[in-house]
Amino acid sequence: MIDAGWLNVGSLILGLVAWIIPIINHAGDKKQKNMKWIALSIISFSACAIAICLQIFYNLHLVKIED
Fold first, then answer.
1. Residue 15: closest CA among 41, 42, 64, 52
2. pLDDT digits (tens, 9 = 90+) for 30-54
3. Which has the least CB within 10 A, 1, 14, 48, 58?
4. CA 30, CA 14: separation in Å to the nearest integer?
5. Mean pLDDT computed over every residue of the chain
6. Rounded to an integer, what distance in angstroms lies between the CA atom of residue 17 and that of residue 19?
7. What whole-number distance in Å separates Cα of residue 10 and Cα of residue 14?
8. Is 10 left (phi over 0), alpha (psi -120 to 50) or beta?
């Protein structure tokens, strides 16, 4: 099984991805934004949701070990 500390690392990385994707999309080429922003929005929301789930799992782990 993976160590519980990796849940925080994964959450941090996915949280940064969720913040960086809209910034890159906003700074990108204006002509190709028609359909590209939909896919990037879904990826950003998914990364954010997974990061939140990892934090919930980490808190669940802390409850289980009674920390």
1. 52
2. 666 667 888 889 999 999 999 999 9
3. 1
4. 26
5. 88
6. 5
7. 6
8. alpha
